[in-house]
Amino acid sequence: MAAHKLCMIPGPIEFHEDVLQAMATPATSHVAPNFIPALGESIELLRQILFTSGQPFIIAGSGTLGWDMTACNLIEAGEDVLVCNSGYFGDRFGECMETYGAKVTHLRVPIGESPQLAAVAAALKSKKYKAITITHVDTSTGVLSDIKGIADIVRKESPETLVVVDGVCSVGSEEIRMDAWGIDVVVTASQKALGAPPGLCVMGVSTRAIEVFKTRKTPVANYYANWNRWLPIMNAYEARKPSYFATPAVQNVYALHVSLKQIVAQGVEKRFALHKEASLKAKKFIHDLGLKLVPTSLEHAANGMSAVYYPEGVAATDLLPKLAAHGIVAAGGLHVEIAPKYFRIGHMGISVTEPERGHLDATLNALKISLAECGYKGAL
Amino acid sequence: MAAHKLCMIPGPIEFHEDVLQAMATPATSHVAPNFIPALGESIELLRQILFTSGQPFIIAGSGTLGWDMTACNLIEAGEDVLVCNSGYFGDRFGECMETYGAKVTHLRVPIGESPQLAAVAAALKSKKYKAITITHVDTSTGVLSDIKGIADIVRKESPETLVVVDGVCSVGSEEIRMDAWGIDVVVTASQKALGAPPGLCVMGVSTRAIEVFKTRKTPVANYYANWNRWLPIMNAYEARKPSYFATPAVQNVYALHVSLKQIVAQGVEKRFALHKEASLKAKKFIHDLGLKLVPTSLEHAANGMSAVYYPEGVAATDLLPKLAAHGIVAAGGLHVEIAPKYFRIGHMGISVTEPERGHLDATLNALKISLAECGYKGAL
Questions:
Q1: CA distance B374 to B369
Q2: Tens of pLDDT along A276-323?
Q3: A274 and A246, same structural domain?
Q4: Is A71 found in the same domain as A59?
Q5: Which of A306, B25, B85, B177 is paired with A82 by a 20 to 30 Å CA distance?
Q6: CB pairs under 8 A between A and B
Q7: Which residues of the sequence carry a binding annotation for substrate (chains A, B) (predicted)?
Q8: Within a domain: residue A85?
């Protein structure tokens, strides 16, 4: 195998050695006494990380599956959903909602902006929404949405509206307090700031949302994603009892378990602070190089990643291969309207919680050198 | 970690060391030049293993997700589906079909029997079915269905009916020739005879079924499982180009890739023969002990597993812990009507293709000793 390049994209991120070792756990039955506690305890640890007394789910699949889980279990055909749309992932979550019969209204913001609280309040006044979705960090733009502020407004203007957060690129790097802030659903995945390899859809669902689910009038129009099948399974594993609906991704769960234990052991608050610190460092470096972030203000820029416009005269086809030659894997643009104009760097997980690894410094230094190699004057 | 017990259940199975090492591949972008060929080549290898020129899919999720993929993409609401039901998994696949609006007719057989060709022919004469589903090996009973025979009858009686095989517990251990036999869909998962850890839904879909999909009249009522989203992704990876819909389970794909290469290198025909040989050995040993298989005849008993009734006076609570104490993990019963009366042993993958590992011998010896410890006279 070629030498490992640092994976500094906004997920998958670099994994701790103990997490990788858990991925190589020998064959283990999904109902074995040495597997059940790994899944059971992971459910408990997620409650601590999401600050909720609600119901976590850990299911084999990508983060995208969490959108289906939200839509098919909580929305009934014909119900209205308000999508706070700050980029690519807002569009997609909206499409997923429509697949299950939701009538979707998009509250779009210009690229680089985050949803305005006044606009959310106005939208909530105009119509009764079953749910509002917010992309906490839109991985396509690095924009951070104010989920606490939006949840406050929902509770004031339309208390029954479910607050759904797409936290795929935020859980583990951005502050989320489900119960205190009144958030009903958080969708995420294993491979971003939760620090494990991809392959698991991870969710937190409030007790209130579970009640809404239990009183739905129409059947759930999905088999694999149906909470009626998964609730007894999650409850059984948490009670340390074997149970079966579909075979869990045993090794991935072992790996997630190791990472969740590390996160809670270091302290969730400490983790938020370290991500903020690393992000400020990255963004100052980027600013000092004369580069411009996609988010229009630091106030609504994500702490786990940076989306950065190429400077004049530098193209994607130039910069990314040069970064790779210096051992750093960064990502290109994803937002369709500006994709060729910007790149993205992830700074999550062990790359920032264990700064002694030097991942971020190596990345920023490689960025400067690569820009200089591209002939960018600001880096000389 | 405690000493590893041999995982001799009907999946997950024991993994090759190289497969496990691939699970511990360091963080790699899902669009990295060193990942794309692993997924692309896995798609090509699956064509060889399934003997098809059709379209394989490799998606993060459990095998169960493959049922949703089949139902939501190929069946439209109101269409009739015939389920050849040889146990637990027939019931479940039927429920999944109904979730997507299918009108399901179950062709049930008594426990331990396989579907009769004459009954299938009669059912096909009575109604026009969009699809027929067959559980190739019902993991709950160890019954092997004659998918070649059934496909022949379908092609004769109702040529447009899609032949859907639940091959979760058969792909890699039982002979399947999709194109030659006229099979349209094979659903499987990574953790059985394909020899990789759980976490991937794996499918093969015939060119004919893809055409049926492309001409469907109603939209696909699922977002994550929608082939419209996955077909371009599978095509892109096979063409060695990056593409994105949902993040693949990178490490699991690396592991599957290693295992698929091993399977093709050893030869698929050879693999079938080795599974048959191991199965005969296991079943003769079981017979000589005076135990009875759940399948009523060797003719329709699976080659990758054995479902065995406990002898008089021996209970699940006695035998399984004793086997575990001897280092062998076996599985209890799963078919609701007889669950406490039988147990299941898997003999798939490296445990039979590399007999020098001694897995099967160790399992059978432990079975004999454990039965004797339970006071079973036939084992003394």
A1: 9
A2: 999 999 999 999 999 999 999 999 999 999 999 999 989 878 999 999
A3: no
A4: yes
A5: A306
A6: 197
A7: 344
A8: yes
B1 domain residue, yes or no: no
State the virtual CA torsion across A230, A138, A22, B198 in degrees, nearest 10. Answer: 50
A1 in a domain, yes or no? no
DSSP string, B168-190: TTTBTTB---HHHHT--EEEEET
Shared domain for A208 and A313, answered yes or no, is: no
Q: Before B26, cis peptide (omega within 30)? A: no
Rounded distance between C-alpha atoms, residue A80 and residue A68, angstroms: 16
Read off the pLDDT of each residue in B135-139 and give the average, rounded to a whole number.
96
Q: Which two tokens stand for residue B219?
A: 């939209």
Put simply, the answer to whether B221 touches A226 (Cβ < 8 Å) is no
Q: Kindly state whether residues B254 and B359 are assigned to the same domain.
A: no
CA pair distance A199, A105, nearest whole angstrom: 31
DSSP β-bridge partners for residue A307: A344
Q: Which residues contact B178 (CB under 8 A, 6 or more apart)?
A: B50, B51, B52, B54, B184, B186, B204, B206
Q: What is the domain-level CATH number for residue A36?
A: 3.40.640.10
Task: Specify the pairing of strand B200-205 against strand A331-332.
Answer: unpaired
Give the per-residue pLDDT at B1.
Answer: 45
Task: Give the range of the structural domain holding residue B154, as residue numbers without chain letter.
Answer: 17-265
Same structural domain, A38 and A168: yes
CB of A115 closer than 8 Å to CB of A107: yes
Which residues from B are below 8 Å from A245, CB to CB?
A: 64
Give pLDDT, residue A2. 55
Strands (E), B112-176: 131-135, 137-138, 143-144, 162-166
Q: Does a structural domain hold residue B305?
A: yes
pLDDT of residue B282: 98
A61 by Cβ neighbours in 10 Å (0-12 / 13-18 / 19+) ranks as buried
Are B106 and B216 members of one domain?
Answer: yes
Work out the minimum CA distance from A127 to partner chain B, whole angstroms: 26
For the residues B329-353, what does the mean pLDDT come to? 96
Contact (CB<8Å) B62/A198? no
> Cα separations (Å) of B271 from A131, B175, B201, B351, B369?
52, 9, 21, 12, 29
User: Total structural domains in chain A?
Assistant: 2
Instruction: Among B68, B97, B224, pick the best mutation site for testing chain A contact (most A Cβ within 10 A).
Output: B224
| pLDDT per position as a tens digit, B99-130 | 999 999 999 999 999 999 999 999 999 999 99
Read off the pLDDT of each residue in B315-324 and give the average, rounded to a whole number: 91
How big is chain A, counted in residues?
380
Domain boundary among B244, B265, B286: B265
Burial class (CB in 10 A: 0-12, 13-18, 19+), B377: exposed
For residues B245 and B268, give the distance between their C-alpha atoms in angstroms, rounded to a whole number.
Answer: 32
Sign of CA dihedral A329, A274, A305, A85: positive
Report the pLDDT value the prediction gives residue A3, as an integer from 0 to 100: 76
Could you give phi then psi for residue B300, rounded to 5 degrees?
A: -125, 40
Q: How confident is the model at residue A1 (pLDDT cuts 50, 70, 90)?
A: very low
Distance from CA of A249 to the nearest CA of B (A): 4
Last residue of some domain: B225, B244, B265?
Answer: B265
Residue A173 has pLDDT above 50, yes or no: yes
State which residue of chain A sits closest to B8, comparing Cα positions. A29
Residues A242-286 pLDDT 10s: 999 999 999 999 999 999 999 999 999 999 999 999 999 999 999
> Are both B43 and B165 inside the same structural domain?
yes
End-to-end CA distance of chain B: 34
CB B65 to CB A20 under 8 A? no
